[in-house]
Each structure stands twice: as C-alpha cells, then as structure tokens.
User: What shape does this take?
Amino acid sequence: MPKSAPERQPHWKAFASRRRDLRTKREAVLKTAAELFLEKSYGRTTLNEVAERLKITKPALYHYFHSKEEILLECYRWGTGLIEESLEEIANSAGTGLEKVAAFVYSYANLMTVNFGRFVMRLDEGDLSDKAWHEVRTRKRKIDRRLRSFIQEGIRDGSIAPCDPKIAAFSVAGAVNWICMWYEPEGPLTPEEIASQFARTLTQGLARRKLDGSRRTAPAAHPAD
Amino acid sequence: MPKSAPERQPHWKAFASRRRDLRTKREAVLKTAAELFLEKSYGRTTLNEVAERLKITKPALYHYFHSKEEILLECYRWGTGLIEESLEEIANSAGTGLEKVAAFVYSYANLMTVNFGRFVMRLDEGDLSDKAWHEVRTRKRKIDRRLRSFIQEGIRDGSIAPCDPKIAAFSVAGAVNWICMWYEPEGPLTPEEIASQFARTLTQGLARRKLDGSRRTAPAAHPAD
DNA sequence: GCCTTATCTTACCCGGCGGTAAGATGTAAC
DNA sequence: GTTACATCTTACCGCCGGGTAAGATAAGGC
Assistant: This one.
C-alpha cells in the first residue's frame, strides 16, 4: 500500500498550464474537493470554492465531472478502495483471529487519519443519490463483514472470548470510525500513537483473559513494526 | 431521569387547536424538527417540511423561534441536557472508577438510541454559528471530561489497567457515539441489548486482567438490572 | 503557419429556501 | 358582544448555488 506522502504541493499546480493531462487534473479536483468536504462538509462546500482553490473557474470543473455529486461519489470510491486494499492484505495474512483484528484496527485507524480514508466515514451518505448510495453502502458493508469474520475466526480458534460478533464488530469499528470525527492532522496525537493504542485497548477487550500468571504480555498489537 | 416514553402521539396534535399553549407547541416543533434532522440532516431539511409535518405553514414557526438555527441549537441544548443529567447521577454514585465507566457506557449507549441523545452526536456542528458552536462544544467537552475523570479514578483505585486516559476515553466514547450512526428504532437490536453488551465489552478492555484464577466473573456491566 | 480540438472564461438561467410583510381568524377576558 | 391580542396564512422578496450556453484561447499534430 503506497504510503500517501505528505504532499505539500498545492493541487492547483496541476492547472497551472493548459497542457492536456486529464488524469492528474481529475485527481487534483478530487483531492481539493475532498479537502474542502472534510473542512466544511459537502453541503456547505461550493463548486466555486473548489474551483477557486484550484485557481480556475467553476464551469471548468464540468470538463472533468458531470455534477457535484459525481465528485462526491468518486471520492467515496477512492476512499473505500484504499480501505479494501488494506483489508485484503490482512485477510490473506497468517495469524489468529485476534491478531487479524489487531491488524485491522491498527491499519484502519491509520487510514482514518488520511484524507480519503476519513472521508468515507465522515461524510454524510445522505448527500448521495439512491443509486450511488447503494453502491457506497455495499462497499461499506463489505468492510464491516470483514471485521466480523475476523472476530468469528478468533472465536473459533480460541483467541477471542465468546461474544456476539455483530455487536462486537459494531463496537470495535465504531471506536475506530469515530477517529475521523476528532482527529486533526495538526493536533498533538500522531497517527502511529493512536493506531497502536487503539489496537491494544480494543483487542484486550476482546482477548480471552488469561487465568494463569505465566503470560503477562499483551498480544501483538500490530504487524511488523 | 424520566424515561422518554414511546409517545406515539403525533406532534401535530399540539397545533390542532389554536389554544394558547406556547410551551407545548415549542416542544412539538423541536421534536418534529429533531426527527427530520435525524432522518435527513439539518441542511437537507426544509422549514416547510417541518411545518408540513405539524400541519401548519412555515411562517407560523417564526412565532416560536427566530431562525432555523435557533431550532437546531435548542435541540442541541435539550440533548446535552439529557446527557449531563444522566452523567451527574453516575458521578455522584459510589463505586470504583471501572464501575462508573461501565455505568457511563450503559447509560450513554441508551441515550444514543433516543432522539435527542442521538441528535447531539449525529448532527454536524458545522451548521451552527460561531457563538452557538462554542456553546455546544463546551457542553460536549464537559461530557468527555467526565468520562476521562472516571477512567483516571479507575486507574488510581486500581480497577482499571494503566493507560493513557485521553486515548482510552476517545476509544470508549467513540464506540458508543458511533451507535447513533447505525442504530435504528425498528431494527433487530434493542437498546437494552446494545447497552449491556457495550458496557461489558468495553470495560473488559479497560479492566485490569486478573492474573489469578480465583475471580472469574466480569465486573458489573451496569447498575441495578 | 494553420487548423482542429481540448481547455477554460464570461455571462447567464432557474429553482429552492430562509426569512418577512401584511392581513385574516380564532381565543380569551371583561 | 366587543375588544384586544395571540395565532396562523397568503403572498412575496432576495440570495445563493448548481448547472448551461456560447465564445475566447492556447496546444499540438501536420
């Protein structure tokens, strides 16, 4: 998974020249739109503002997208793509269910601190048309199912204490999802800190309590670090 | 705390007669507005729709409120009031820090299944004016501080394993807050179920793992049940 | 250089929504 | 019953934002 670099290059530079470069210009639009949507919400963001930040005018945007909503949907697709990619990796890895949950939390928490990841859970689905809504909903459900399957796996292999996987998944996913509501890039907490602490705290809640004193270390909170 | 009854009485009955009853009419407006805001978000809800559901016309609303935003703010006040009330009770009760956290989660989770409670965490603060935003923010911070203090109390009295209280509070509060994003009154999960399971799962994550096998019961998940 | 075509701008439309003006209507007090 | 006031309605304004029409401008192939 490509670590999305800090990228301090302002996106409007993609539009500095009129050279034909549809691909990167589309991406520039999506990135600035996502930024603004996260800052002010979709509804309160104007296409004029998006254009302004790119140093172009509103109608120019319509050379790259058919409507405001299409921009929104593409942002969702980008974000869910990132998440699915990351989950795929975990599902294919070896380990107990509990370890997979820990890896999920760690990885997912990190995504919640990155623009397109935050986007997916932060923005209001209600702004989508029915058709797009169903698409996004399907993709989100897939994510939740993955987590739930990790938990079930853990219950089977004994690494996780018996519980209702559905509610447990809601609980874990909720804690992580909520990160996108309070996290701010300039804040005191680093993504790394948050991710590892969450992975530890949440898995300890799921882990079967050891009844003997021989093992005092917590299960691995996250892979390869 | 008054258990908000099912109340199947439609709110428009408050406006059936023109009798002067400002108080209950104001409440009726707030209740229907809150319903709609939860269904469709603040931005996508029209004052016409609010009026329509009350079987009156839009300008009539302006006899009870000065602006759309005032309605929003009053809803926030109502909701945060409910939460604070419930927290006050817990803070004044006896018990270990862990027990208070459990009680918090149980109580708070229940609130998240009730309209004015859901409201507080579900709606976008960005729709508020600067002044109102600060007010709501202060009230929310107070809630978070309460939880954090319970956790600190638990660490001191030994009922909770050492951890960063700030991040732990974010984690617990996040899991519970997120309930308002997926809970639906007509769904299969009852508030009671959710609340007790969350209280158990989340506190087990915070509870110091017993290293001896003598004590096998989990700490009380919620008070008096 | 020239023509074609993608790119981008200026000017505009239109619908919707928060909010208001002014007046009609029912309610309560006496 | 009449007065006085709270309540509610009809009609309207003004603004803003998504989206479009039509034309200017620069790229790039030849």
